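Budget justification aside, the reviewers requested a transparent look at the raw inputs and outputs of the sequence design task funded under Objective 1. We therefore reproduce one unedited record. The lines immediately below are the structure tokens for a 118-residue chain.
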């Protein structure tokens, strides 16, 4: 699977986009997986992550909206890891030079104390 980071550029009035979405849904073809999205507060852009095996599925989805939205896509071609994955033990698999938390006398890894300091 390849993850795509998609920037959608909306027109000054995004109302038609949201009306179509309410009427027809995302209109993503089978095999294209919506991961998440974030819309700017001025409603000018939407940043989305999508995933699929075949880039043509992403192109098909964008074609359904191309009369209302301009797109820019970034292909995360190399395998990627989520931040959560890289922060979970075993740290050494991702960052061999990273100092791992040391166990405390009570058997915890010390993270509890770090959280209390926040």
């Amino acid at each position: 699977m390849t993850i795509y980071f998609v920037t959608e550029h909306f027109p000054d009035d995004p109302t038609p986009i949201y009306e179509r979405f309410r009427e027809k849904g995302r209109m993503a073809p089978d095999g294209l997986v919506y991961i998440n999205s974030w819309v700017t507060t001025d409603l000018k852009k939407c940043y989305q992550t999508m995933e699929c095996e075949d880039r043509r599925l992403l192109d098909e989805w964008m074609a359904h909206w191309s009369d209302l939205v301009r797109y820019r896509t970034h292909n995360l071609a190399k395998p990627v890891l989520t931040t959560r994955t890289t922060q979970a033990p075993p740290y050494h698999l991702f960052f061999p030079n990273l100092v791992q938390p040391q166990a405390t006398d009570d058997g915890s890894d010390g993270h509890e104390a770090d959280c209390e300091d926040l």
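The chain has two domains: 2-76, 83-116. The longest helix spans residues 55-65. Computational costs for records of this kind are itemized in the attached budget.
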